[in-house]
Amino acid sequence: MPHAPQQSVACLPAIDVAIVGGSTAAVSAALELAENGSSTTLFHSRSGLGEESAGTLQPVPASLDRADSWVDSLYPQDAPFPVWPGRIRRGLEQALLRAGVPFWFFVRPVSLLLDESGQMAGLLMASRSALFAVPCRAVIDASQHGIVARLARVPLTNLREEQWSIRFLAKTIPAGWEDRVQPLGDWFEVSEGKTVLRAGLFEARLPSPGDKIEPAASEWRLRSELLDPTVCVTPEALSGVGSAVAASPETALATQLDHLQEAQFEPKRGLFCLNTLLPIETAVHAEWEHPNGQATLGRRLGQLVASRLPTVGPPVQLPPSDTTGHHGFAPIFLRKSDTEVTLDLAHFPRLTPCDVVVAGGGTGGAGAAIAAAREGARTIVCDIQHGLGGVGTLGLIASYYFGNRCGFTSELDDRMAKLDSNQPDTKRWNPELKMALYARLLKQAGGEAWLNSFAFGVRKAGQKVDGVLVSTPFGAGLVQCGAVVDATGSADVAAAAGAPCRTTDGSHVAVQGTGLSPRLIEPRYHNTDHTFIDDGDPEGVTYAFVEARAKFPEAFDTAPFVDSRERRQIRGEFELSPLDFLANRTFPDTITTAESNFDTHGFTVHPVFLVCPPDKKSLRADVPFRCLLPRDIEGVLATGLGVSAHRDALPVIRMQADVQNQGCAAGIAAAWSAQRGVAYRELDIREIQKKLVELGVLAPAKLQENDSFPLPKEVVKTSVEKGPVTFYDAAILFAHEAESQPLLLENLTSDITSERAVDAALVLGLMGHPAAGDCLAGQVAATEWDDGWNYRGMGQFGRSMSRLDALIVALAKTHHAEAATIISAKVAELDQDAALSHCRAAALAAGILREPPLAEAIHQLLQRPGLAGHAITAMTDGVQQANPDKNDNRTRNLALRELHLARGLYLAGDHEALGRGILEIYSQDLRGLFARHARAVMNRPEEAAVG
Fold first, then answer.
1. Which of 265, 381, 457, 919 has the largest CB neighbor count within 10 A?
2. How many CB atoms lie within 10 A of CB 157?
């Protein structure tokens, strides 16, 4: 395989010290460095700090020395027992914010960066499937397993006995674990709403999870054994120490932390250890995990590093390697990146090969891995979380809203019902129990789960992906495989392979609302919708967790999983449109039949919904196999939220029950592709369908169906005659424009003032037909502003634009000679209380027409009090503004209204440059959706007229 060409990687601004890890010691070191004037940033691969305490459910030790005021603030005496993890995480975050130390979650180093002399000069970091460089003079490795030391190939010696344990909260000791656990403290009672829960904290000693570069499969197996409905909370991290030490075989292990010598912290020039790779006895683990020990050792190392910062050159290369091949990565989104470094990115060792890699172990990925393994394929699923199941387990949305509960989903429901007799409603479940069930089913099928691991790139041979780059807690490397299921929910692997994708270029700002829920002790359903989170924006994701902990300060913890409802999607061999299922379209390659209503969680953009707004009626949607196939790429199937579908089709096909079945179908296809050496596109789709019929995923009738489009002309004519008053008829008109337009023109010219003519004009105008202009101009000019719509996420049904809003957009699309004048006059009637939908309609019209009168009208509107100033560019500001509303709409409404108007103003000529000024502020907004859109409007204005 030829050697890959060099690639450019975006760089963060250079700093003195990069800290990797999220322990209390890491935070303590960061604060000390800041006190000494050293610039530093902390990077952590999980969703919150306090890995050794909050992350392991460490109880507050009785020996806590409260003379350390910082430690005392984290563990106040009046706090409940044990001190809730959320309080610890929030305290550590606030300490960093006060000190001005930046920190990022869900990122991990995958390689070192070297200068020309070979000296370590920074880190190559991965955020999902994107890379960025961090130039620095020194690194503190505070990660649990010493990831940086391992990447640096620091010699490690097994000098002590490994000791691992798992702590968990449970209502009783789980069956079969009576001889394996010990209680930690007394039982306690906690009131959560109407529920009073009596629970105990337990600890179970575990065999070693392994100490190798591959993720510790034994940790996943051990978690699969904790399958009991009495378990309330399992930790994100195990507690303990491994056998490896960054020292020579002759080293005498320290029996106390303060016995460590300065030189023992620095096993390699510029690299300092602040984890259990330090040469300490196993018995010292209790002192190491103690809050006072963490704080003291962190401060000590911070002082040491500040005094011994080496001089290094700019990063120019990665460590040498003999691997070859072309590796692909997704584009990164950074706010503060003005430089790049060019690197040879083929430098990754080989890990264990397999038949199928499933990237992402969430709602679809867990099912895909189980299905592939059941087909006999050697299967590895990797997920950055500490368990499988995604939104329905770690995300806490432990309930079906809609969905076709058949096939694999039905099997899961039946198994859960047998495991948990206390849950009679099979629409809801215990999220901890379902997470353990996924692990158990995967183990029984012969697959493996690599937890706390994620795919960050691919290897390609031509257009074929033949390997996945995986970051693990022990290192990073290539997993060669025969097939990949991209179950990341954001098409990370497909994007890394170079597949065309949508929804991440910032061209539109319409995204379904996102939840990030407070975590209660009682393992039950919890659902929120209070923000927008761009999963590909590491800084924005971090802000979202910090804001959520400020929003829910009394919660036990914050869920570690972002409950996104819309993410990046592939552009596939076929894109499912809402027109398809509204018009009952069938396909020859259907793999699932989804079921839901239009649970939009925000506003729609497809023109059919400006004519006939969504309602609560349940619909069925067939999903073709081609929606899972990225264009121009072989070897990858995308499933879940990453499939090829119009964003307004997602509410009907994204229900958990349907994604579980879709993942099952993808896993079967992946196993057959890898085992038979057959490309995805060459698989016999009827054979796959027959298998899905056997499993109950598909109805037998689907084996006989073909594409029902285009519909006969008589059907189109009938829909025109009925008028666009139902989903079905409106969808047929938009799906068959060539056939419907001549018939609609007849309706338009028959009586220009009739309701029938106005309906025809609205449809024709949204199609961009100029003949509708006169009718629409008259209607808009003669109509008073109606009730508009302000943003609503949770429970949003019906219109997100009023009738007049729709007429305004349609008029603009006709480019009628008087359109700008008429619409400008309407904008002049708006005030500071203007509804979002009215502002959005005006902005869309301005972006389409791009005429000065509209710019002047919007400029005047933006001068009104309260319409501007809603960007959030600093975490401290966002934390101060956090409110307890779990379904907050107002914050988003204000920002959306301002951003839409600024865009319209900018595109229409930008009177007095006010639009650009607002967009430049939003380009730094910590909500990545807004920042990307603001940049896209300024950088690619020709693409930015979409709402």
1. 381
2. 15
For the segment 361-393, what is each residue's pLDDT rounded down to a tens digit?
999 999 999 999 999 999 999 999 999 999 999
The distance of Cα 624 from the centroid of its chain, to the nearest Å, equals 24
Residue 607, CA distances (Å) to 394, 465, 502, 810 in order: 36, 37, 18, 9
Burial class (CB in 10 A: 0-12, 13-18, 19+), 774: middle
pLDDT digits (tens, 9 = 90+) for 437-467: 999 999 999 999 999 999 999 999 999 999 9
Cross-strand pairs, 158: 244
pLDDT for position 1 = 46
Longest Cα separation, the chain: 97
Neighbours of 568 (CB within 10 A): 26
| pLDDT higher than 90, residue 943 | no
Confidence band, pLDDT 50/70/90 cuts, at residue 332:
very high
Comparing CA positions, the residue from 634, 688, 588 lying closest to residue 371 is: 688
DSSP 328: E
| Mean pLDDT confidence for 203-214 | 65
> Which two structure tokens, joined as six digits, stand for 150?
């391992």
Residue 688: is its pLDDT beyond 70? yes
Closest CA to 124 of 476, 473, 460, 451: 476
Task: Give backbone dihedrals phi and psi of 774, rounded to 5 degrees, phi first.
Answer: -60, -45
- Please state the φ and ψ torsions of residue 765, each to the nearest 5 degrees: -65, -45
pLDDT of 208 reads: 61
Quote the CA–CA distance of 709 and 696 in Å, as a whole number.
26
3-class secondary structure, 898: helix
CB 45 within 8 A of CB 386: no
Q: Which domains does the chain have, with CATH numbers?
A: 7-157+243-321 (3.50.50.60), 163-239 (no CATH), 783-943 (no CATH)
Q: Which has the higher per-residue pLDDT, 208 or 518?
A: 518
Average pLDDT of the chain is: 93
Beta bridge partners of residue 330, listed in sequence order: 130
Answer yes or no: pTM beyond 0.90.
Answer: yes
CA dist 197 and 200 (Å) reads 10
Confidence of residue 175 (pLDDT cuts 50, 70, 90): confident
In this structure, are strands 356-359 and 379-383 parallel, antiparallel, or unpaired? parallel
Contact 571, 631 (CB under 8 A): yes
pLDDT at residue 213, as a whole number: 43
Cβ(375)–Cβ(349) below 8 Å? no
Count of alpha carbons within 13 angstroms of residue 524, beta-carbon side: 10
Residue 126 one-letter amino acid: A
Secondary structure letter of residue 564 according to DSSP = -
Q: Which two three-digit tokens encode residue 100? A: 């001005």
Angle of CA points 908, 910, 911, to nearest 5°:
115
Q: What is the dihedral of CA 524, 530, 536, 537, to 10 degrees?
A: -130
Tokens 């990453």 locate to 642
Q: Which residues contact 574 (CB under 8 A, 6 or more apart)?
A: 587, 624, 626, 627, 644
Angle made by CA atoms 659, 662, 668, in degrees to the nearest 5 = 145
Element (H, E) at 900: helix 890-907
Extract the tokens encoding 338: 């003005």
Please give the distance of CA 773 from its chain centroid, rounded to a whole number: 43
Answer positive or negative: Cα dihedral of 83, 87, 89, 93: negative
613 contacts: CB under 8 Å, gap ≥ 6: 604, 798, 799, 800
Report the percent of the chain where pLDDT is more than 70. Answer: 96
